[in-house]
Amino acid sequence: MELKDAILSRRSIRSYTDQPVSREDLEAILDLGMWAPSGVNFQPWYFVAIQSREQMEKLLSVMDGVSTDLEDNLRTRFANNPEVAEESLTFIRNLGKAPVCILAFRHKPNYTKTDETIVQSIAAAMENILLAAVDRGLGGCWMTAPIETGTGDLLRDMFAPGKGSLVAVMTIGHPARIPKAPTRKEGRYIIL
Ligand SMILES: Cc1cc2nc3c(=O)[nH]c(=O)nc-3n(C[C@H](O)[C@H](O)[C@H](O)COP(=O)(O)O)c2cc1C
User: Fold this and answer.
1) Among 127, 164, 171, which residue's Cα sits nearest to residue 36?
2) Could you tell me the sign of the dihedral formed by the alpha carbons of 23, 29, 33, 35, in that order?
3) Is residue 73 in some structural domain?
4) Ligand 1, residues 7, 10, 11, 12: which to mutate, most atoms within 8 A of Cβ?
5) CA-to-CA distance for 73 and 148, rounded, in angstroms?
6) Per the structure, how many domains does the chain have?
7) For residue 141, how far is its CA from the centre of ligand 1 (angstroms)?
8) Which residue's CA is the closest to the ligand 1 atom numbered 18?
9) What residues make up the domain containing 112?
10) Whose CA is nearest to atom 1 of ligand 1?
11) Are 58 and 158 in contact (CB under 8 A)?
């Protein structure tokens, strides 16, 4: 697939088929994440790919609480589009039935560079992973809902004890439904 096609066709997928993600695909997309740029070449990421039923159930039990914590907030925010609130809450609760969920942590609890530098580096690796997934016919959705509810440390202690804090989670799987592309805002760059 052309890079341009991968960038343009990538959508946030919130519903997945029950087709598993092969080990080969999962390792290939994670490996491409490692090739992202990073501040001072710290490569400050640590990814935990959750795939087994047992670990997924542990994660889903936490996500159920995240969904409950965000319910009032999302219902108020999308008061005019209740179906959007419903879809968001369902996705947070069941992760769209994704066969894989990747948790992105800081590799170390502390770095000598600013938090911005560390988070940008991890985000660069996450975008590589998302685009690599699209290239293999998979889809994903970046999600920070657990961070918004202060659940990151619980997930870190559960899945990556001793590592740094959680930056985001990302579902991966075969898309059951591909949403329409949200429009992009005008005027967000200038060439001087
Ligand atoms: C940092 C970040 C956090 C996000 N958090 C969530 C989330 O918690 N829940 C969710 O459903 N989507 C989340 N998204 C996906 C965005 O809603 C989505 O990227 C945006 O609506 C544009 O749609 P597109 O990805 O299909 O182009 C997040 C995306 C980013 C980059």
Assistant:
1) 127
2) positive
3) no
4) 12
5) 11
6) 1
7) 7
8) 12
9) 3-51+96-173
10) 144
11) yes
Q: If you measure from the C-alpha of residue 11 to the centroid of ligand 1, how many angstroms do you get, rounded to a whole number?
A: 9
Atom of ligand 1 nearest to the CA of 179: 26
pLDDT per residue as tens, the chain (192 positions): 999 999 999 999 999 999 999 999 999 999 999 999 999 999 999 999 999 999 999 999 999 999 999 999 999 999 999 999 999 999 999 999 999 999 999 999 999 999 999 999 999 999 999 999 999 999 999 999 999 999 999 999 999 999 999 999 999 999 999 999 999 999 999 999
Is there a domain that residue 81 lies in? Answer: no
- Residue 15 is part of a domain; what is its CATH number? 3.40.109.10
Q: Is 91 in the pocket of ligand 1 (CB under 6 A)?
A: yes
- Whether ligand 1 lies within 6 angstroms of the CB of 131 is answered as no
- Residue 10 in any domain: the answer is yes
70 and 148 Cβ atoms separated by less than 8 Å: yes
Q: How far apart are CA 34 and CA 31, in angstroms?
A: 5
User: Closest residue (by CA) to atom 13 of ligand 1?
Assistant: 143
Tell me if 119 is assigned to some domain: yes
Task: Say if ligand 1 is within 6 A of residue 182 CB.
Answer: yes
